[in-house]
Automatic annotation (TrEMBL):
Enzyme type, top EC level: transferase
Gene3D superfamilies assigned to the protein according to its UniProt record, in alphabetical order: Type I PLP-dependent aspartate aminotransferase-like (Major domain)
Organism ancestry: Bacteria, Bacillati, Bacillota, Clostridia, Eubacteriales
Keyword Secreted assigned: no
Gene coding for it: vioA_2
Annotated GO biological process: polysaccharide biosynthetic process
Similarity remark: Belongs to the DegT/DnrJ/EryC1 family.
Entry annotated with the keyword Transferase: yes
Keywords: Aminotransferase, Pyridoxal phosphate, Transferase
Protein name: dTDP-4-amino-4,6-dideoxy-D-glucose transaminase
Enzyme nomenclature, EC number: 2.6.1.33
Gene Ontology molecular function terms on file: dTDP-4-amino-4,6-dideoxy-D-glucose transaminase activity; pyridoxal phosphate binding
Segments crossing the lipid bilayer: none
N6-(pyridoxal phosphate)lysine PTM positions: 183
Catalytic residue list: 183 (proton acceptor)
Amino acid sequence: MSTIQVTQSSMPDFQEYIREIEDLWESHWLTNMGIKHKKLESLLIKYLQTPNITLFTNGHLALESAIVALGLTGEIITTPFTFASTTHAIVRNALTPVFCDINPHTYTIDEEKIESLITERTSAILPVHVYGNICNVDAIDAIAQEYKLKVIYDAAHAFGVTVNGQGIATFGDASIFSFHATKVFNTIEGGAVTYLNSDLARTLNNLKNFGITGPESVESVGGNAKMNEFQAAMGICNLRHVDFEIEKRKAIAQRYVMRLDGINGLKLSRQPEIKSNYAYLPVVFDGYKMNRDQVYEALKKEDIFARKYFYPLINDFLCYRDKFDSQDTPVAKYISERILTLPLYANLSLDDVDRICDIILGK
Ligand SMILES: *Cc1c(COP(=O)(O)O)cnc(C)c1O
C-alpha cells in the first residue's frame, strides 16, 4: 500500500494549467504584477469578500510586511500554538512577542487572558485562526477598541471560512493568508494581506517591490516579495476547483467524525457555527488507551504520516526557550503534548480513512 502523508497538494488538470500559462510565451511578462497577478487579485477580492488585497510570494513575507505597514511597535500579544512563522515574523521585525494561552476547545487565543498581558508597550494583538477554527473575533475587537490596539489575524489556515456568511478576511485591521502548497488553496508558494484601510496598499506594494513607485522613483526602503505569473496562474486554476475540494474534504472529515467522535479519551474539535474549510483534522488523545506518540508510531508503521501540529510549542523552540517559559501557557502546553493532526486532503479515499481509524481504534 502506498504512503499516506498528512496532506497532498491540490493541482489542477495538467492541460488546464498549460492553457493558463500559454499566453506568457507571447507576452514574456513573467513577474512584476502582470495580467495573471491582476486577475488573481480581483478573483480573490470577490472570493474572500475583502475590500483590499495585496499578493505576496509567500504567507510569511505577507505577515512580516503587514506588521511593518501597520506601524507596530514594542510588544505584540500572540499565541505559541501555531506555526513558527507567526512568532518569527514578530521577532524578525525586532518586536517582542508576548504569549497568551489558548482556549482548550478551539485552540485559538484565549480572549479572556489577553487583557492581563497588555502593557504600555503593547501595540497589537496577533491571533491565529488555527486549523481554520476562528478566534472570538468580537471579544478581540472589543479589547482592541478599548486599548487602541491593532489586530492582525494569521488566517493562513482559514482560506474560505465564513461566519454567518461573512468572510474571515473582514475581521481585524488586516489578515494574512498563506497559499503554500500544503494549504487548502495554493499558488505553489504564495500569500496575501487583506485589509480594511486602502491607504495601506501603497506601503505594502513598496515593501514587496523595493519601494519602487516609478521608473525613476524609489520612495521607501523595501525588499522583494512579489508573486510571479506562474504562481498566480496556478492560483487562478486552483481557485476554480477550491469549493469542490472543500466539499470533498468535508466528506472525509465527516467520516473521521463518524468513526472517532464520542470514543472515550479522544477529542475532536468542531465549530458548528462557522462554514469550515476542513483544512486539518486535529485529534487530542487525553486518557485514551494509547497516548499521542503511540498513535503516531502505530500509523507510521503502516506508512501513514500524521503530524504533531503544533509540537513543540513555540516557546519551547531552541531559539526561544531561553527567553520564554512554556509553563506560562499551560493549556497550550497540555494540548501540544496530546494533539495529532490526521491525514486530510481532497483525494484521500474513505477506505484509507477507515484504515487510519482502524489503526487508531486498535482494530
Ligand atoms: C503556512 C503558515 C504561515 C506561513 O505561510 P508560508 O506561505 O508558508 O510562508 C504562517 N502562519 C501559519 C499559521 C501557517 O500555517
